[in-house]
Amino acid sequence: MTTDVKPLSLRVDDEGELTVAVTADPSGMIAIDFGKPVHWLAMSRQQAQEFALLILRRSAARVMQVDFPDLPG
């Protein structure tokens, strides 16, 4: 994900930045690890697109070689 993203402050219970790791194990299972319990998350449209592309890249690598372009900007 983007490293220059500032935390969103949409609610009073917002704890700020969240670490996200998306991995695939040898069986093809995709794991998304936030590093702590997460009740909700919010992100900009661009962050959501980057997150979706990251998941697609991890999942597609097990089935076929697919190149997803980076988002402009």
Which structural traits does this protein have?
73 residues, alpha+beta, two-stranded antiparallel ribbon, 1 helix, 2 strands, 22% helix
Descriptive notes:
This protein has one helix at 45-60, and strands at residues 21-24, 30-33. It has a two-stranded antiparallel ribbon with strand order 1-2. Strand 1 and strand 2 (30-33) form a beta hairpin. It has one domain (1-67). The chain starts with 20 loop residues before the first strand and ends in a 13-residue tail after the last helix. The protein is α+β, with helices and mostly antiparallel strands and 73 residues long. It contains one helix and two strands; from the N terminus they run E-E-H.
Q: Structural class of the helices, strands and pairings?
A: alpha+beta
Radius of gyration: 14 Å
Strand content: 5-15%
What is the strand arrangement across the widest sheet? 1-2
Give the overall shape: flat
Instruction: Give me the count of strands.
Output: 2
Q: Which sheet architecture does the biggest sheet show?
A: 2 strands, antiparallel
Question: What is the overall number of helices?
Answer: 1
The total domain count is 1
Helix content: 10-25%
Instruction: Point out poorly predicted stretches.
Output: none
Gist of the model:
By secondary structure, the protein is an alpha+beta fold. Helices cover 22% and strands 11% of the residues.
